[in-house]
């Protein structure tokens, strides 16, 4: 089976019990904690910052924390999140004045680095930075809120990015975020994704393990071909 990662988005968790929620979803079989940072400027919502990331580490969370920066400017946040225990830091190219520099800052801070593409953001931002990328994240909704519907044109975009990654010969994760459910995860994987962010599909159900196992069963059917 391909090496698929499931990354629950804590945007849909119960923030009043965040440590327990993250612990529970990891115990239920999740691989990575997806941490959505929104600034009410780049996106029309306001969420959580480095203090909350550090609080999760202090609580005892050791799994990778995948910080998705939906903020502008970007660079000011990089060191703060690295110090707070982020494992992966991704940002939107439109939000950074100097994309190459922002990527290098993330790597210099000891984290994995990635670019995030909104549904209508063109892929040309990848042209000269493939050597600095550990992750490419395609948004399959417009960022800002959980619980939105998957935008179907993401499938074509995933196929295009998968070709670029395979053509580069590099080991780069292809992550997808927005509207991922048990009933579409196989189609999304078949288009090339290998890391799946899911918020409402997991946290809005009473049994996290059941959802994650159902997702893995769907992914196994893709691997089986
Ligand atoms: O980045 C995000 C929104 O900007 C969320 O991670 C994403 O929408 C996940 O939520 P859901 O799985 O409910 O669509």
From TrEMBL:
Keywords: Carbohydrate metabolism, Cobalt, Isomerase, Manganese, Metal-binding, Zinc
Gene3D superfamilies cross-referenced by the UniProt entry: Aldolase class I
Residues noted as binding substrate in the record, renumbered to the chain: 9, 68, 144-147, 177-179, 199-200
SUPFAM superfamilies for this protein: Ribulose-phoshate binding barrel
Cofactor(s), names only, from the UniProt record: a divalent metal cation; Mn(2+); Fe(2+); Co(2+)
Catalyzed reactions: D-ribulose 5-phosphate = D-xylulose 5-phosphate
Superkingdom per UniProt: Bacteria
Cellular component annotations (GO), alphabetically ordered: cytoplasm
Residues holding a divalent metal cation: 34, 36, 68, 177
A Gene Ontology biological process term: pentose-phosphate shunt
Enzyme Commission code(s) on record: 5.1.3.1
One GO molecular-function entry: metal ion binding
Pathway annotation: Carbohydrate degradation
Database matches in InterPro entries: Aldolase_TIM, Ribul_P_3_epim, Ribul_P_3_epim-like, RibuloseP-bd_barrel
Cofactor: how and how many bound: Binds 1 divalent metal cation per subunit.
Residues annotated as the enzyme's active site: 36, 177
HAMAP family for this protein: RPE
PANTHER family recorded: RIBULOSE-5-PHOSPHATE-3-EPIMERASE
Record-stated family: Belongs to the ribulose-phosphate 3-epimerase family.
Described purpose of this protein according to its UniProt entry: Catalyzes the reversible epimerization of D-ribulose 5-phosphate to D-xylulose 5-phosphate.
Name of the protein described by the UniProt record: Ribulose-phosphate 3-epimerase
